Amino acid sequence: MSRREPYDAIVIGSGISGGWAAKELTGRGLRTLVLEAGRPIDPATDYTMSVQPWQLPYRGRRDRDRQERQRPVQRHCYACDAWSEQFFVRDDENPYTTAPGTDFLWIRSRQVGGRSIVWGRQVYRWSDLDFEANARDGFGVDWPIRYADIEPWYDHVEEFIGVSGQAEGLPQLPDSRFLPPMELNCAERFVKEGIARHYDDRLLTIGRCAILSRPHNGRAACHYCGTCERGCTTHSYFSSLAATLPAAAATGRMTLRPHSVVREVLYDPGTGRVRGVRAVDAETGEELEFEGRLVFLCASALESARLLLLSTSERWPDGLANSSGQVGKNLMDHCMGGGANGVIPGMEDRWVYGRRPNGIYLPRFRNVTEPHPDFLRGYAYQGGAGRDGWGRGNDMEGFGADFKHALREPGPWTFDFYGFGACLPRESNFVALDAERVDRWGIPALRIHCQWSANEHAMLEDMSIQAAEMLEAAGARDVSPYVDDNPPGLTIHEMGTARMGRDPDTSVLNGWNQTWDVPNLFITDGASMASSANQNPSLTYMALTARAANHAVDLLDRGEL
Amino acid sequence: MDRRQLLRLLGAGAAAIGLSPADARALLAPGAPRRPRLAFFTEEERESVTALADLILPATDTPGAVEAGVVDYTEMIVSEWMDPGERERFMRGLAHLDIHSESLTGVRFAYAGEDRQTAILSGLEAEGRALREADPEAPTPFFQQTRALVLHGYYTSEIGMREELRYQPIPGRFDGCVDVTEVTRAAPGAGR
Question: How far apart are CA A154 and CA A162, in angstroms?
Fold first, then answer.
């Protein structure tokens, strides 16, 4: 690697946020160093898209003993399976602790591309209902921005990544710039019509996802193999590895260094600016230092907070850029898992062709126009319909030729609503450095204190009740409501640990994702979120990152950094 | 989809759907299912497992579980993947199967003949179902444990996926509501 220091910018993390920072900063002419803690990923050899079950040791069954030893936390994620577990960190190398009586599943990746290789790919815009939520009910601090500030950046991001979906014109869920929507299946159309007949405040639509329904920006359309989390060698879903990092590399101004575990952001008390970072080579243990005029923290909500807390100095005894005391506080994750399922009668001669990597979406309807008596804010459902395959044989009677031939045909149609709800920002949900645990590189680990509040519990209950009612109303049979007892973290939408705000005394970042305390330090991942809304957050991280990066370059151009 | 159809799809359309030659080669790679590291079953146990697999998913107009390698698969899962409790339950059930057969027929299960094997297995199934109904949390009874192994082993084998399920690795498009046909009937879950 040629050392051309100081770099114009250093980006820490190469996931969904870091990839966007790299693309925008290099696109505006900055020589940018991207530091990634994990290994490089080569889609041709690392992706398992083309691996069939019979080519795996246990035909796709997880190796339980190995997961228990190496990934006792990560294994809770559906995607951490026999095909894809290598895209998740080893917990034995990356420990964290939780406060007594609390539980938090921290699901993470360290690799070039970060979690964008295994993300859920669902993308939804926020609206002013979301940006005004804190101001309205008093939880957290008011966002310093509104929808109008971020709208052009949603456009900018969507035009690049490609988002398939159906425009619906809802005020609480603004439409994206859509590629053609994927089709609803027969049973989903049936439920959609049933809900439309019975409710005037609810609508079922196809999921909005960063998967190409037609070729876009040099990437191929989805081929509907259905298992995106194994990695897509045609780059049909968006990841930083597939799109933003190649764009950044094409400028000739990006230097990407994998295996670089950043352990400190270096502060220069003389200038009041950060001057670079200290890192350790993950493979050799070599201590590294890099200088840059601008630092973008895009390491994920918890890792970015950890890095600020690790970066102490005489000026910043409680962590860099932490004059507000809010670094690490206000941790949120979406509460998920209130829902219901049921059998959709009929349509036994109808089925689908292809495996659609996307489901349905039923946008928020609670606290949109009428206040709900039991909880603040709202939730939305994901889910969809399908027909059981051979696995239902385990619950059937019999064996033999007729049994085998019965399993050839798809089983009954079933439909599932699965809710995702907002989490209130509260100071009592926070992370701090653990005084005793260190990771494989000797870097202090995090101790996480996080619990759902009564508001999230009330919302989960309502998700379950409303899902069952809607299925009944639509004509489903055997409707079963449920509430999954998921600990925070498992939704993998952790955010809030270095929030934006209007006041330096109560927030870490201003309205441009710039730390109030250190002008050339920006944080644009989930840490920056002042509230959680209930929409999947990655699209907003991307838009905020692109907006912040362009603002930072504007400031540089004007000599204001 | 058989290999010839897949070749045709890939030959005509691989570039159009963005698949590289390496992807195409991987998708066409002949299956080389892993065999167990060590022989675990005795010859008698192997005969019993073969008979069970053949009864549960026999060869019909498509190959059955035995041809799809389910016996090797079962040996591998039982010896390498199961925890000690699961393994002990399965092996005890297998031993009991022969004792039960000998008491009823005078010969081991593998030699009892299809009618008597079917009767024995039906009895075990009913017994297992009653156990499960009485206590849903109880360990999976032998018949249900065995059938789950045979199903998974068969439907994740190359024969089970390609010939029985007509699994299409690269469908190339998505249609949300079509007739159930030989082409469309493969479950979306196949390949998971």
Answer: 11
